[in-house]
Fold this protein.
Amino acid sequence: MSSGSGPSVLFLSANAGTGHTMAAEAVKQSLQELDPSISCEIVNSYKYLNLILEKLMQDGYLHLVRLLPKVYGYLYDRKNKKRSIRGIKDWLNKVSAGNFKKMIEEKQPDVIVCTHAFPCGVLSYIRQHFGLDHKIMGVVTDFVISPFWIYPETDMYMVAASDLKKDLIARGVQSSKVVASGIPINPKFYEEISKTDLRNKLDLSSDLPLVLVMGGGLGMSPVTGIIRTLKKITVPYQAVVITGTNEKMKRKLDDTLSKLPNVRGRVKILGFVDNIYEYMKAADLLVTKPGGMTAAEAISIGLPMIITSPIPGQEIRNAKYLVEKGISICINDEKELPAAIEEFLKSKSQQKKMSKKANAIASPNAAGEVARQIYKMINQKQPEG
């Protein structure tokens, strides 16, 4: 895996959303700052499925989430019932083990870090049935944990908060194998820069509150309806809408906005941006889907959230967690959104309260903590197969 003589770390992500790879990138950067001799590689684990399974895992996930959210939620709920998904887990891990085993034998990493549950399960299967000397770490990028993460063969888990550590322990994982590190995010979120300077750089008003609307890295969100509801807001505001990689959605939103003259001058529509941290730090309120990575980024900078229409499954569970912590409002009907935004923008006390609660649970060095735990694993004796 490395042309040098230093240790190596293999990150196994998955193209089911962008957060898994972003988390791996953040940890990779921190790890190489800690020890530049460590070589790192990030791999999309879906590449090591056969073509049919890859299509099913990746495109099937997207179609279910977009078109049949209730079906996806049902399947997610089923997989949270341990007995009902045991056969699915075993089958999927078994049919994937051969390609993964060959890949690991070729790359020979010292530690394998999984930022998605799927490769974590396959590696555990390989260790159980064939032996695997390489250490395995799971990095959970949500505020909930499904059974697809839980395997006795996994050496270490990194989770978002102490609540999740307690959950894993209650489900049979040894306390010594779980660290409440926080979700690793881009370190640029922690760089100090004034909101005024950012607004000037991004060509935004310094005098108006900024509402940031995001559809996630895959551009999945009911933002067309959100744009239409903005015309009902009576207080002064400006808004930036980021659609991610969904170019079709951006074109649709541009067309929708052109037909709303009273909104057009206050709203910018953007596609994929590589400086999302700047827009989030410039914002006063984030309207978004409750993805774990996006929520962790907002929490890191004390940015209050309004969560819109969470789909059944991990989104509803993430939303529940964030609302319980007092750092988010959840709206299930788009018609309620204008009033919620307006109430938030009018209430300085609510803004400060939600921001303070977010700051209280932030994990400002999550990527660094995960990197330190990987470094420890590198220097520990390898487990017996």
Q: What stands out?
A: The mean pLDDT is 86.
